[in-house]
Amino acid sequence: MRLIRILTFSNFWIAVGAAAFCQAGYLFLGDQPHWDLLNLFCFLSCWSVYLLIRVAAVKRITHYERTHRWQFFLDHIRFFRLLTFSGLLAVAVIYFFLPFRVRMVLLLPGFISLIYGLPVTARRRKLRDIGIIKVFLIGFVWAFVGSILPAAAGEGAFSPDTIALFFAQFLFIFANALPFDISDMKSDAMHAVRTIPYYLGAELTYTLSFVCLVASGAIHGYFLPDTAVPAGVTIMLSGLLIYMSGQIKHEQVLFFGIDSLMLLQFLLVWSYLFVH
Fold it and tell me: Could you give the CA distance from residue 44 to residue 221 in angstroms, rounded to a whole number?
C-alpha cells in the first residue's frame, strides 16, 4: 500500500500512463512502438506538468481537507518543487531534439497543459477553475497524445482512423476523469468551481461515464476493428472500476487503478497484436 501511495500521489504512475498511452496510439494506427526521445518526453512532460499544477496551488491545498493525497504532497513539498524544476528543464531540452513536425504538433497541447493550472484571468483564476472546462481540456490533451501525436511522429498520417482514434480516446479519458471530479466536489466547492457533477449530481455523472465508455467502444469496433478486442477489454475493466469507485475507501487505490488503465490498454493491445 505504501508503494502504491508513493507512485500515485507523486504523479509518477500517471506519467508512466502518458508514455504508454502514446505507445498505444502507434499500435492502434498500425505502427510499432517507438522507444525514443518522444517516449521520454511524454513521461517527463506529464510528470512535470502535474507537479507544476500542484506546486502552483500549494496555498489553496493547505485549506483542503487533509486527505492522504494532500497530506503526502504537503509533507514532501520541497522535494516536489525540485522535481518540478528539474523535470521542466529536461522537457525543454528534449523538446528541441524532437523532429520539427512533432515540435509543431506539440505546441497546442503543450500550451494548454502549461496554463491549465496557472492564473490566466484578471482575477487570477486558473483555466481549470472556469466552469466545466476542466474535464474537456484533460480529455483533449490526453486524446491528442494518444492519437495525433503518434500519427505525426510515426508512419501514419492524419487519416480518418487517426480522427476516429482521437474521439475514442477522448471519450475513454473523459469517462475516467469524471470520477475524479466527483471526488473533488468538496474542494471545488470551496473555490466556486462548478464541474459536471455540480450540475448533474454524482449518480448522473456516473451514468455519463458509462455512456462515454460505450461510445468509445463503438468507435473502436467500427473504425478500428483490428484492435477492438483489447480496447474493449480495457473499456470493460474501466467501467467496472468506475462502478466500484464509490465503494473504494482508500483513495490511493482508486487513483492507482484508474491511472493504470492507460498502461493496461497498451499492454493488452501489444499482447493481442503479438499473438495475432
Answer: 32
* Tens digit of each residue's pLDDT (9 = 90 or more) over 18-76: 999 999 999 999 999 999 999 999 999 999 999 998 888 787 777 777 777 778 888 88
Q: Which three cell numbers stand for residue 242?
A: 468506475
CA distance 226 to 218: 13
C-alpha grid cell, residue 11: 504523479
pLDDT confidence band for 124 (50 / 70 / 90): low
Looking up residue 118, the CATH number of its domain turns out to be 1.10.600
94 vs 254, residue with greater confidence: 94
Q: What is the C-alpha separation between 258 and 56, in angstroms, rounded?
A: 24
User: For the chain, how many structural domains are there in total?
Assistant: 1
> CA-CA-CA-CA torsion for 197, 175, 241, 22, nearest 10 degrees?
-140
Greater model confidence, 204 or 4 = 204
Interatomic CA distance for residues 125 and 131, integer angstroms:
11
* Domain coverage including residue 73: 2-275
CB 18 within 8 A of CB 42: yes
Q: Which set of grid coordinates corresponds to residue 128?
A: 481549470
Q: Please say whether the beta carbons of 81 and 110 come within 8 A.
A: no
Residue 145 has pLDDT above 80, yes or no: yes
One DSSP character per residue, 147-212 reads IIHHHHHSS--S-HHHHHHHHHHHHHHHHHHHHHHHHTHHHHHHTT---HHHHHHHHHHHHHHHHH
